[in-house]
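Support reply, case 0932

Customer input (verbatim):
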Amino acid sequence: MTPPIPSSLPPIPVATLLALREGEDAQVWGRIRAAQLFAGRELALFLLAANLIGAALVVMMLSPAVALWQLLAWAAFLAAAAVGVAFRRLRIPERAGGTATLGDVRTTLFDGLALAMAWGAAPLLFARYTAPPTELGLWMVLSVLMTAAALALAPLMLATLAFIGLLAVAVAIPLIFSHAYVAAAATTMFAGLLIYASAIRARGFAALHLSALTLTERDETVSLLLREFEESRADWLWEIDAARRIVRASSRFANACRLSPAAINGMPFLQVLAGPTWEAGNFAAGLRQLAEKLKQRESFRDLALPIVVDGEERWWEIAASPRYDPAGTFLGFRGVGSDVTEQRASADRINRMARFDTLTGLPNRLHVNEALSRALSDAERWRSRAAFMMIDLDRFKAVNDTLGHPIGDRLLGRVSERLSQLMSDNELIGRLGGDEFAVVVRDASDPQRVERLARTIIDTLSRPYEVDQHTLYIGASVGVATSPRDGRTAETLIRSADLALYRSKDRGGGVFHAYEPQLHADAEERRVLELELRQALERGQLALHYQPVVEAATGALRGFEALLRWNHPRLGPIGPDRFVAIAEETRLISPIGEWVARTACEEASRWPGDLRVAVNVSPEQLTNPNFVTVIASALAQSRLPAERLELEVTEGVFMREGTGATRVLEQVLDLGVRLSLDDFGTGYSSLGYLSRTRFSSIKIDRSFVMSAARGVAESLAIIHAVVALARSLGMATTAEGVETEAELAMVRELGCTNIQGYYFGRPLPVGEAREIIRRSRDSARAA
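Our regenerated output:
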């Protein structure tokens, strides 16, 4: 049975129908063209017979009026053309499933032209010899031939158009010359109607085959899907009657239930799905939902059910629709089921990967945020409080830098184990990334309990770790925010805890700090300072002040320490304690440090030759490989001798061995620059660094000077020990923060080499520093 032409078929362009242009789907139109050629092949003999019979009739009609040899010559020419066209059509193979090119169809134009020229010669050559009755007979024969061609060549629209059109012109021309205008018009109209009918038939032929090919393609797709369905054996059909009993159980459904089709037929559908829980009545939620759908006779789909088959839990997904007979009587349900256990397990794995940290196995940032949002929602519902802790590991970066990331990763694993052991059902611990962890406290109604947990976390994480035969010491800082006081949304509470954590880190780490509103104000101030600091250098807002350093024994001026100052036109003077840390964190310390070094060297080059200038260097600057070039360039441009420049570094430099800071210091020392260890005894350094690094002096922190002046024995002993150590290593000592006569006498008695402090001068602008130098030179000349 021929498939119907879908009403929704797209229009077929005339150029495509005439084979003048390729269709949208070249492969499909190749097969349609093959069908067109084959249709012409089927009627080739019919067209040949029509041509030969028509030629015989014309010869018989015209023989009384036209010379027989002329008629026979014309008939021979016509027969040759008709036979040639017929043989060309018959040589076309049956292209079942094959294709034809545009050129194959275009060549049929020559068939139409050959027949049209052969038949068109008859009225043009012989019409003047014929009487009206004979002329009418000739017109009728030609009309029949045009009609036959419209039938035989219709699928080949190009050939049809050439034959009928050219023949109609050949018939109309003699009629016009004999003034038979009505007959000429009738001939033209008749030819036009035949061409229009042929076009309709050609379009219908193409549309019919286009529809058939579309249906075939769909059938092939469905067959492939069914074949894949059969091979995968993933789905099955099921059917139940109005009493919810299984009818006509398929073998695949029975096999999924580990039963035979005979045994499963007639069993209650819900009993089969409930399995061992049927008797106890402890049904899964999905099974109860299914029972309700069946009761309400509602269609459903994608309903997931846990099924126990042979003691193993599987997950099925089923869909079904109710069935009714023509009278509207309910017959039951028919549906499809599928085992989705593997897909569900895969989805669970993907979900876990998306919500859990791969390194530690703890919930990740996404999971923590979700848990915090739920905790806040529950706290608001029950008029309770929730809390959020942010934990940052102290000195963890040093482990990564010195021992490498594999050791650091294993250390993070140990940390996560310790944290997990501290959690109860009321808390959730997660890793936010890097060395940051977080705790969601669902019920934080007891502030003391939250504080105890924070302190316990710090104490637990501060105990030593044994990792790959390394004993590692790190610590932890904790920031806590509590709802609703510190925030009602997860985003706000996280920000508040982050600010509290920053305050804990700012205090040196190893402490716990709760959020307070001032922290937000501090953070806003910090943000404003960062924005202003980015433009302070180019706007000329930075300046260097110089604090005198004198010889302890004589009070003679030995040099100055260059100290950075920031005078903002709107915010006023801003101390280094407020902006240096910001410069380090934002990587602005490198350009600022370069400016300090160049400015200090340029100023010192104007001083007398025995005065030195000391410049503080941040550990962050020493991580820049270009730092050595910066110092060398500053010395070269200012022409300051290298030994008159002293760089002051803190003990924090030696906590960054993995960054190459000590190697950079060695390269700077090779230039001839002096090196001073600032704030000795207040950090984490080892005495080993004093012997391995070529320090020229050690600076004793002001805190030791002040406490020693008050008679604190420990501080006195420390200063005495540092002075003795420095002497043994050939280093000078500088006591910082000397402000009184008593402190001066004490540090002189203890043997310090140099003194720096308000007693001899505060940090001074460059003009005042130059004045001190002038007075010092005048005093020296007077002496």
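We compared this against your earlier run and they match. Two observations from our side: The longest helix spans residues 181-232. The CA atoms of residues 479 and 501 lie 4 Å apart. Please reopen the case if you see a mismatch on your end.
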